[in-house]
């Protein structure tokens, strides 16, 4: 479509997009939680919490922590990697 000789996009409002963009992740989580069966004794893990540290099941494996510490102590990785990444990490 042209207006004053300039081309314009011909997009209109989309009610579904406007409605859904007004909802936050917290609102979706609250909706899900409000629909849980209160009589169900199973534990619900709040995956929308954002911080896994309060939940022991989500702790970092000690071998991963040690590998990172070893890498830092070695001083072999105190530089930028190539743009495509280091081969070990890509593998």
TrEMBL record:
Source species, domain of life: Eukaryota
Cellular component terms per the entry's GO annotation: cytosol
**Any one GO BP annotation for this protein:** L-tyrosine catabolic process
MF terms (GO), sorted A to Z: L-tyrosine-2-oxoglutarate transaminase activity
Q: Which InterPro entries does its entry note? A: PyrdxlP-dep_Trfase_major, PyrdxlP-dep_Trfase_small
- PANTHER family membership: TYROSINE AMINOTRANSFERASE
Protein name, per record = Uncharacterized protein
Species whose genome carries this gene: Thlaspi arvense (Field penny-cress)
